[in-house]
Amino acid sequence: METESMDCESYGTHHFSSTTKTHAVVTNIVGPAATSVYELLECPVCTFSMYPPLHQCQNGHTFCSTCKVRVHNRCPTCRQELGDIRCLALEKVAESLELPCKYFNLGCPEIFPYYSKLKHESVCNFRPYGCPYTLAPSVLGMGPVYMAFLRFMGDEEEARRYSYSLEVGGSGRKLTWEGTPRSIRDSHRKVRDSNDGLIIERNMALFFSGGDRKELKLRVTGKIWKELHSADSGVCMPNMSS
């Protein structure tokens, strides 16, 4: 960026001022032009968007106020010694920018002035959220998991007459699975590949094991019951004694 194209003011031993005043109508910058200007507002050190006060070296290279402290008074681009030159022109240009929310690719249709865009993005309804399953390294990962399920000594039709639950607990927490038993005729691989059972990711399993979370000591309990159908109401009543 050439210094001739910027109207800057120095806060130091040197002062620069313009002797000619011009009047112009400021219009909002949108579209590809806004994108090009937006790139100028990216700090070359941290690559984040810059907000006032914006600083520049004597050769016109800009950077954010946070990184000005980090570069030890040397321009990160040309290595010239820094002064206290504030780039007022670029700050004014930023005021006229209108840009889409950075989560537009996730569905946000909003467009905001540059200086209010950051505030919106912190509360945008389309922003990513942290996974509530904090012990899982990745919901798409290939990490080890442990699975428990129940197979019924009979065919599939008989198995559907029953329900069962499995429970694992530890450290004051419980994880329960409830479902319909699989027939003994279904192979172990078939049941496993269908994910039809109590599935515990390794970190969660170590959590339930207690201690220093280095040794796996899971205790899984379960129960099975037969569903009794009431002829009058058509309601399924569990027979816990079965």
Give the key terms.
242 residues, Herpes Virus-1, Apoptosis, Tumor Necrosis Factor Receptor Associated Protein 2, Chain A, four-stranded antiparallel sheet, elongated, disordered N terminus, zinc-finger, EC 2.3.2.27, metal-binding, Znf_RING
Give the topology.
Layout (H helix, E strand, L loop, with lengths): L8 E2 L21 H9 L14 E2 L5 E2 L1 H6 L14 E2 L1 H8 L2 E3 L10 E3 H8 L23 E4 L2 E2 L3 H4 L2 E9 L2 E7 L2 E2 L4 H6 L4 E4 H8 L10 E10 L6 E4 L3
Parallel strand pairs: 8-11
Antiparallel strand pairs: 1-4, 2-3, 2-4, 5-6, 7-12, 9-10, 9-13, 13-14
GO biological process, one term: ubiquitin-dependent protein catabolic process
Pfam families: Sina_RING, Sina_TRAF, Sina_ZnF
Catalytic activity: S-ubiquitinyl-[E2 ubiquitin-conjugating enzyme]-L-cysteine + [acceptor protein]-L-lysine = [E2 ubiquitin-conjugating enzyme]-L-cysteine + N(6)-ubiquitinyl-[acceptor protein]-L-lysine
Can you give a write-up of this model?
- With 242 residues, the chain is α+β, with helices and mostly antiparallel strands.
- The chain has two domains: 3-96, 2-Layer Sandwich (Herpes Virus-1); 145-239, Apoptosis, Tumor Necrosis Factor Receptor Associated Protein 2, Chain A (Sandwich).
- Helix content is 20%, strand content 23%.
- It is built from seven helices and 14 strands.
- The protein has helices at residues 32-40, 65-70, 88-95, 114-121, 156-159, 188-193, 202-209; strands spanning 9-10, 55-56, 62-63, 85-86, 98-100, 111-113, 145-148, 151-152, 162-170, 173-179, 182-183, 198-201, 220-229, 236-239.
- The strands form five sheets. The chain has a four-stranded antiparallel β-sheet. It has a four-stranded antiparallel β-sheet with strand order 10-9-13-14. The chain has a two-stranded antiparallel ribbon with strand order 5-6.
- Strand 2 and strand 3 (62-63) form a beta hairpin.
- The protein is elongated.
- Mean pLDDT is 74; it is low at 1-31 and 231-237.
- Pfam families: Sina_RING (PF21362), Sina_TRAF (PF03145), Sina_ZnF (PF21361).
- GO terms for molecular function: ubiquitin protein ligase activity; zinc ion binding.
